[in-house]
Amino acid sequence: MNGPEARGGTTVRDALRGWGGVTAMAVVCALVALVALCLPLTTATTATQNTTATQTARTKAAEECEAPEKQTLSPSSADGDTIRAIKNRTGEKRKLIVGVDQNSYRWGYRNPNSGKTAELEGFDIDLVHRIAKDILGDPDAVQFKAIPTDQRIPAIEDGRVDMVVRTMTINCDRIEDVAFSAPYFKTGQQVLAPKSSPVKGYDDTLADRRICTAAGSTAFAALEADQEDGKLPASTDISTTVPNQLDCLVRLQLGEVDAVVTDGALAASQAAQDPTVQLKGDAFTAEYYGVAMKKDADDLVRRVNQILVDYRKDTSNGWQASYEKWLSATLGKDAKKSEPPAPQYLRTT
Q1: How far, rounded to the nearest angstrom, does the alpha carbon of residue 215 sit from its chain's CA centroid?
Q2: Rounded to whole angstroms, how far apart are CA atoms 273 and 277?
């Protein structure tokens, strides 16, 4: 006998002959297939574990977070890398790029009566011009980018904007993703409904009612948490969310929802646009608007905080004047109710 068989062993080919060989081959194939299946499964499992760990860390951070409006940097007028990069833009690109709203009446909206260009106007827009004047020396050196509610944080993280000034509430979840300035406005969540509606406020009269909120808003987060905790009737339908908050008013006008929950400051402006709706009950949260920026843009955060200090002190063209111009008609002449408390800073270095 010649070949490997003659030297006292059997080859794999011999072992796989006949039905026994078929069985052995099947086992080999099964093992190979199992290994192939396990590889992506292991990868997927690792990815899932990483995602779960991240979510757990975020949840823990949110639970431990207290007074998010105080977790900002102390004011400074010094230029850092972020501000220098903005100043080094040349030509037409030498502008502050800011994410804003263009549909929030008296906050950030295009006034059709302002001329052919329908300039953006409102309380938030005044603040943007003040920031641009301080950093670039020209209040009009601004490139406005209209962004929906649920795109505010992605726009900052992706570098599409330098900052967002868009009635954006400072909260514990958001400070995990972006940095905020000190507060520049105080508000709270409130119910908006037709005047003829039996809804009386944020209470049991919302049972079996359909509520609209903006996706990614603090309003939706509050409704979701309160329903889970039993503070909001289980029969209340909170499934209707829209990209822009003003879309909720349209849904309400069309009869597709029974009420809207949003910041009281915005709701008051919407009631001014539509005399058939009104605020129902008192605000059921206390919240603060802040300017949002990239997490690592420390110099820009400090600069904006310094601008806010000066803006509030300016009695002729500052915070008070802007409030009287845009918001006193809807929120009342007493600006103290909306003015945030004296800023406090978590970190000083």
Answers
A1: 9
A2: 9
Contact 306, 225 (CB under 8 A): no
- Identify the pLDDT of residue 66: 84
Query: Are 99 and 147 spatial neighbours (Cβ–Cβ below 8 Å)?
Result: yes
pTM, 2 dp: 0.80
Q: What contacts 111, CB < 8 A, 6 or more positions away?
A: 118, 119, 121
What are the structure tokens assigned to 226, written together? 């309160």
Q: What is the 3-state secondary structure (H, E, C) of the chain?
A: CCCHHHHCCCCHHHHCCHHHHHHHHHHHHHHHHHHHHHHHHHHHHHHHHHHHHHHHHHHHHHHHCCCHHHCCECCCCCCCHHHHHHHCCCHHHCCEEEEECCEECCCEEECCCCCCCCCEECHHHHHHHHHHHHHHCCCCCEEEEECCHHHHHHHHHCCCCCEECCCCECCCCHHHCCEECCCCEEECEEEEEECCCCCCCCCHHHCCCEEEEECCCHHHHHHHHHHHHCCCCCCCEEEEEECCCHHHHHHHHCCCCCEEEEEHHHHHHHHHHCCCEEEECCCCCCEEECCEECCCCHHHHHHHHHHHHHHHHCCCCCHHHHHHHHCHHHHCCCHHHCCCCCCCCCECC
Q: How far apart are CA 209 and CA 235, in angstroms?
A: 8
- Cα gap 17→178, rounded to integer Å: 66
CB contact at 8 A, 122 and 108: yes
Tens digits of per-residue pLDDT, 169-211?
999 999 999 999 999 999 999 999 999 999 999 999 999 999 9
Q: For residue range 14-55, what is the model confidence (pLDDT) as tens digits?
A: 443 443 443 444 443 344 343 444 444 444 454 445 545 445
Any idea which residue has 């039993």 for tokens?
230
Tell me the pLDDT tens digit for each residue of 57-80: 445 555 568 889 999 999 999 999
Q: CA 133 → CA 87, 95, 136, 243, 344, distances in Å?
A: 12, 10, 6, 31, 25
The model's confidence at residue 3, banded by pLDDT at 50, 70 and 90, is: very low
Strand partners, 142: 96
